[in-house]
Structures are given as C-alpha cells and as structure tokens.
Amino acid sequence: MAWLGCIGLVGWAAGVEANSAKLQSSLLSRWASKMTFTVAPVGQSPKGQNTASVQGGLVLAQSGPYDARFGYAAAPSFLALLEHAGYAVERRAVPSRELAAFVGHGGYPPYHEKDQAGLTLYDRSGVLLHSGKYPPFIYRNFEEIPPLVVNTLLFAEDRHLLDPTPAERNPAVDWPRFARAAAGQIAGVVVPHLRSGGGSTLATQIEKFRHSPEGRTERIGEKLRQMMNAAVLAYKDGPETLATRRRIVVTYLNSTPLASRPGYGEIIGLGEALQLWFGTDFTDANRILRSPARTPAELARKGAIYRQVLSLLIAERRPNYYLITNPDALAAQTDRYLEKLAAAGIIDAKLKDAALKASLPPLPPIPAFADEIPEGNPPGESKLSETLRADLLNLLKVPNFYALDRLDLTVHSSIDWATQQRVQAILDQLNDPEFVDTHHLVGHYLLHTDRNLHVNYSVVIYERGADGNYVRVHADSLNEPFDINSGAKLILGSTAKLRTLVTYLNIVTELHGRLAGLPKAELTALAKEAHDPLTEWAATWLASSQEKDLPAMLDAAMQRRYSASPGEFFTDGGTHFFHNFERWENTLRPTVEEAFENSINLVFIRLMRNIRQYFMAQNAEAQRILSDPTDSAREAYLHRFVEEEGQKFINRFYHRYRGLERAAILAQISRRGRAGLDRHVALFRAVVPKASFADLKAFLTAQRFAHVSDPDLLELYEKYDPARFSLADRAYIAGVHPLEVWVASYLVEHPAASRAEVWEQSKTALPESYGWLLKTHHKHKQDVRLRILLEEDAFEQILKDWQRQGYPFGHLVPTLADVIGSSGDRPDALAVLMGIILNDGVRKPTAEFEHFEFAQGTPFEAEIGFHPQSAERVMAPEVAARIRQALRGVVANGTAKGLQGAYLGPDGKPLEIGGKTGTGDNRFDTFAPGGAILSSRPVDRTATFVFFLGDRFFGTVTAYVSGPEAGRYNFTSALAVQVLKLLEPALAPLIGSRLGNVQAGL
Fold first, then answer.
1. CA-based nearest residue to 203, from 150, 161, 263
2. Which residue range is the domain that position 187 belongs to?
3. Residue 186 and residue 324: Cα distance in Å, rounded?
4. 279 in Cβ contact with 361 (< 8 Å)
C-alpha cells in the first residue's frame, strides 16, 4: 500500500502548492527574470543576448488581435517595405536566449504590454503634428478605477484575484474553478450537457483576446498556452504578485473586446464601449460611480451608469450576441446579476433598485474623437497630417487610416512645421480679394479682381541632402484630400520643355561619346550620310571646332538656332498646326537657350522633331523598310500598324453597339451609312447575312422604303448576297468602315460577347479590312503608316529618357505636342528632375519621413532611419551644370524675370535662382470634318514654376483651377512666379535668406 501513500503525499503537496504557490512563484520568477531584451545598434548584441532575432524583433509563433492591431505581427513586412524604400534599421530589440527560446516554443514574450498605442507624427524638430491614441479612453492605473467597478468585475469573473494571501498567488489559475471545468470537460465526453467552461481567470482571458488566433480558444493546447503565458508574465516582477494582479484588472478593463460598429470598427475597453454603445462620457461615468448619490436624481443616474458598466462586463463573454444580436438576453442577464450582487453585498439595495429601473439608452451616433494636436495650431495642420498619413498608407501598405492610426509607431517627418505654418498662412489668404490686390497678384497674365476666388495653390519645398532629398514644406490651399502636387495628371505646359532640353543634351552627350575621337575626314563623311539633323550637326561641329570637350559641345548645342515661325507638322498620324504664345515670336530665329528662357513653342516643336528623327535614325530597320519595299521587316511593321489601329476601331465600335438588340444595332448603323435603297440593302445583308427576305422587307419598311415592289427587292436581296463580296467591298458599298460592319454583325450573332472576345475573333477580319494597305502597289500609302509606327518607337525612347528623369507615367502620346505638355505631368515629378539637376545629374531618393520608432518599449522595438543606398546617374554632370545655367537664364532674362533680386543670401547678394515656367490650358475640343473647332469645353488651367533657390533648396509652385470655372481665367505661369516671390519672407528662415530674416525681424 506504499504506492497509495505516495499518491496521497503527492496530492497533499499539490494542494499545498495550489494554495501557497511557493514553488511555482520561485521557479517561474527566476525563469521570467531571464526573459529580457535590450535595444542595441544593429550589428551589436549584448552579452548573453540572442543575435538571431529577425528584422529587429521577435517572430511570433502565433499572433492575435492585439498584435495585429498595434502592428507587431506585421513588423517583418513593415521593415522590408521600408528597406525597399531606402530606410535601414539602426537599433532594434535583441532578445535574451531564454526569451528567444520561450517564443520559439510557442510562448508570448512576457513584458509590460501597452494598453494604449497609436500613430504619432512629428516634424523634423519634434513638433507634434498628429497623435492617434487607441483605445481613446483607458484607466492609467489601478487607483483610477472606481472600487465599485473593481468589485463588480471580480465578483463576475475572478473573485479571489486580489486576495492579499498568499502574496505569491498565481493569477493565471484558479485551481478549484479549473478543476471543476476540467472535470466538466471530461464528463462531457460521456454526458454532453455536463460539459462546462468557466475555468478562465482574468489573466488567461487577457492572453486569449490579445494573443490567441482571432481571440479564441479553439483547443486545449491553446488554453494551456494561455495559462503558461499568463503565469510567466505574472511572475515577471518577482515572486509576490499583488501589484501584478492589480495591473491585470486595469488591463482587462482597458483591453476587453466589446464587438464592433459599422463605420467605426472594433470597440476595445470599457471606456470606448461606454461612449460607442451608450453615449456615456468615460470621465463622467467614473466620477459618478465614485461619488455617493445624495438625491433621487443622482441615484437614478448612478444606477443607469452602473447598469451600463455591468452590462458591458457581462457582454464580454459573448460580445456580438449580447450587444448586437440579442440585447434582450443581455438585459435579462444583467437583472439576474444585479440580484446576485446585492445578495453578496457588492451593491446596496438602493443602487440595485435604481439599476433595475434603468434601461440602456438607444445606440448613439458615432462620435468623431479628435486627434490630440497642440493647441493653437492653424487649420492647415490637419491637411498636412492627412497628407502625411496618406503617404504612410502607401509606404507601409496599410489598408486604411483606421488601421494606420492604431499602429504602435512614432514617425519623424522631414517637414519643417514653422516654415509650413508661414507658407500656409500666405496660401490661405490668396483668395482674399484685398490681399490679392495689395500683393501685386492682379494684372495681365495674373488675376482679375473679380475672378480670383477659386484658384487653388500648392507649394512644395525640398532640401538637398548628402544622401537624398527631404520634403520641408508641403502646403496647399485646398480644404480636401486631393493633392495638386501628386494627385493627378495635369497639363503643365512649357515645363515639358525642361524634360525635352534634358533629352536633347543627353543625345548631344551620347553623340560626343561616339564621335569625339573620330578623325576629321570620317566626321565630314558621316555628316553627309547622316539620316537625322542632330547627328549631322554633331559630326559637322566636331569636324570644324578647335574645342572638342563636352562642355564646349553642350554650349554650342544651346546656341543652335531654329525658326520660330508657325507651321504644319506631321505627327501622331496626321498634320498638326502649332502656334507660339505671343505673335511677335513668329518672326524670330532664336537660339535654343533663348527659346528656353522665353518659352518659345515653335523652336521646341522643331527641336522635338529633331529628337524624334534622331531616335528613328537609331532604328536600324527604319531606313531599310522605308527604302526597300521587299524587306521582310516592312510587312511585319505593316501588320503591327493594322493591329494597333484595328484595335482602336474595334474598341470604339464595340462600345457603340454593345448591349443593343438587333433592331437597335441596325437602326444606328443605318444612320452612319450612305443614303439610298441599294446601300441600305447592302448594309443589311452585310450585318445580318443569314437574314431572310422577309426580314429585309421589315427592315426597309422601318427605313421608309415600303414602296419597293417584291420582285425589285428580291433582285437586290440576291444582288448583295454577302457571299459575293469581301468584307471590304461590302463595307465600301454601304459606306461604313469594314470593322464597324464586322463588329455590328458579330454582336447581332453574339449579343453577350465581351470586348476581349470580340477582339480575339476579329483577327481574321483585320487583314481583309486592311487589304488596301497590305496588298497595295502604292508604296507612299504604306510609307505614311510606317512613319507613324516609327514615330511611336521613337517616342518610346523619349519616354525611357523622361522616366529616368522622374516622369511619373508609363505612356507618352507619340506627338510633337509633348514638348508643350500634351501628355501631362506632375509638379512633384518635375521637382524630382530639379533635384537631379541640382545633384549634378544623379537621381537620389526623396523622403518626407526621416525616422521611425516602432513598438518602443517592447520586444519588437526597432528604430529605422533614412539611409538610401541607390543613386542613379541620369545625366552627365556637364549636362546638369549646363541646364542649371539655362534655368538661371529663365530668371535673369526670361519668363521668370520677376524673381530677380527677390531672395538674398546671407552675404546680402542675390541668391542664385533658376527655374522653368509652364502654363496649361486643358480643354476638350470638338472638331468639324474640315478641322474647324465646333466647341471647346474648359477642363482645367494650371500655372507652374519649378525652381531651385541656391544650391540646397528646390521645389514647385502650382496654381490650379478645374472644371468650367477654368474658362474664366487667363493667368499664366507668371502667377506661380509671383506667388514664389510673395513667399520669400516665409521661406527665408529656412533657406537663410538675409532679406527675409530682416523682414521677419530675425
């Protein structure tokens, strides 16, 4: 019987340990004390710490709602995204071996977890711009909780949690409750209705709704994991646990999930739940629950609030069921608990009766919890905060602001808030008539006093750093999320001349590299054989010039002269006529530099034509296919033309006829064909080849041809049998495009066909429709189409060069009009180009966030800084220097002369300023067949100036009006230049201008 004695001894020891927790407190506290982490610079690992932590933090074996909400679970992906954007981890949390091993075996790191976190944004100097605290209302410590709430919670969930003895109590397990729950589970295998829960303490419930998958306990193994995590955490601060147990109460009340509301999201903690479910202020509720009720009204109010609190504590067990699906069940359960609480002496009879009489209020509207921002900040701060947060969404790939604002993340932006305020204050006044009048914004090419109230302005200032460019100011006058600087594709006019000039000088640089070493005779021969003007000029200049270095050649290229006379140019598949902005420019023959300074359109149209010809000449097939009709590549190009143009027609006709019934298709296409009975019969038979003679009669009757006799009509029916004619012939007789006939016919037979299906099935119709091109003996017809394709290929090469400059779009319309902005651009993309020019031709990354502090004070902590590794050379340094000279000329002699002397350096001398102006007048024009404009609808108007100030600062100023209102304005880029001049006092402290410092009293 000795074994029975041993069992009894073990049982007795287990009982003693369950009541005293002496052994477990000793063992677990020693173990937990070794589970530590240290924040150290990357590459350094304190002695005894684990160097295998992944990307600045521990990898969780599992992650729950808390880890997802604060971003801990996504830490590896966040860090990878930041690294891809040019950031690097500078410091990170390094776990001890014990902590790494514990997590590696499925545990959750024991540390003092945050009840509240959220996104915090600062400017470059530490000024608070945005603070998102979530949950918005919490108890900061145990003493803030009304005793009535504490006692109610313990009675309902964990009655012995705060018992003073034993001091070493393990809050993770209530052994009697656990034994009953375990017995119930075992018995439930045989008798299902005996299965019961109720073994969870507050500590294990916290582990469940914070760190278990989806906040649930699906298996017994997960329950044991919760208990182990809770036990280790309980002894983190030593064997005695009373302080920890009090903290558990605080954490539970702050963190318990209480369902979700559409339009808001999940509701966490008692404070937020009181506000969201009942419209009760958290501070008021705590004050009332602490205070004695001296009057019947105070007692009724206290009873109502106590009922709300009790209902929420009960609802935590089944939040969606009680708060959304079945509130009546919650009310009944609350009534039962009120009786139990009164019987147990937790509440008195008066409070019980008051609570029983109370009812829960109707669902309140969702409140707009205000961001915590410094008092006195102007309205512009919220727009800046929204802009920065939107950029963070894109950077971190976070789905929405709701998720972003809950991240445990502190971000230091590159914005200079003091300068931002000064700039924003001026922008906010630019639609004030009195301010506009008194600050020289009214006049020719500027504003009119009666038309200045709807212009939107954007200013972005960048500072050039050693490793990248930093956004210092990002301000606009719009009271909406749209960002003029980067939010749309805008027609920015002559700013495209800057991109064109870069491409031109890049070509000159390429030609210099290829030709500068050749002997004079070879250069002379090459000039005679050249197929494009730029190669011809380069070879001629190198053959005759004494100076052959690149700077000299670039200077010479800038002094080449072009006619500024208006004229017709073949581009984009047709003949186009271009004009100068000023008529007096038509008689000029300026240099490229003079044309750039004064933004003369026709010079740059001709320069772009030269660039197009250069890239066409680089295409080895181009000359062959144009000169040799038998070249095999020629046929391939022709088929490519057929496919490209054919697809445009197919798409157009598909949209015209999709979704229509047969009668509607016939009615519409008949209006497009030629008049006359024969033509209508031919069209009908082409579109509906299987139609009967009776169908034809019905169609012609609807077309008012009912007077035709049957014999005559039958003759026409047979005459225009589709089998007798090709698709091209059928379409010619009817007077309709062959592909229109084919698409209409296909949709009659296949009314549900998708565009992709129609395009795929049209492949056999294309060669037949374009037989006039593919089988002609007239070489000229083919050459015209081949030149269209070769122009497309040339503009693909131009696009590649522009994209290296930072052009933000993946397509250029193949037209010479690109040089005057027809393909659109973005101000921030032009600023990228200005940064390249200022950085001697090297494209460096741009940042508006300098430093990230993720999960501070946790085992997932990481500090990330901007450390870009890549820099791309876009142009030779000699090209960048020559373009800076040209940009300075725009201010000294050209369209931005108004800025001369506006900014002074610290030495009192004029600051070196350069830039390029651009005016965009975007309209939707409708043309008559002869080319005359039938109507012109204004879309938007823009005025842009992209500039540099000294050798460190650059940026853009943009004025913008959209919609029909744009037609009332005639401002040009002179407005943007004048705005930059007006901003000098606001920018001076940032850039160090002496004049501004004096005006600002500095």
1. 161
2. 1-33+158-268
3. 33
4. yes
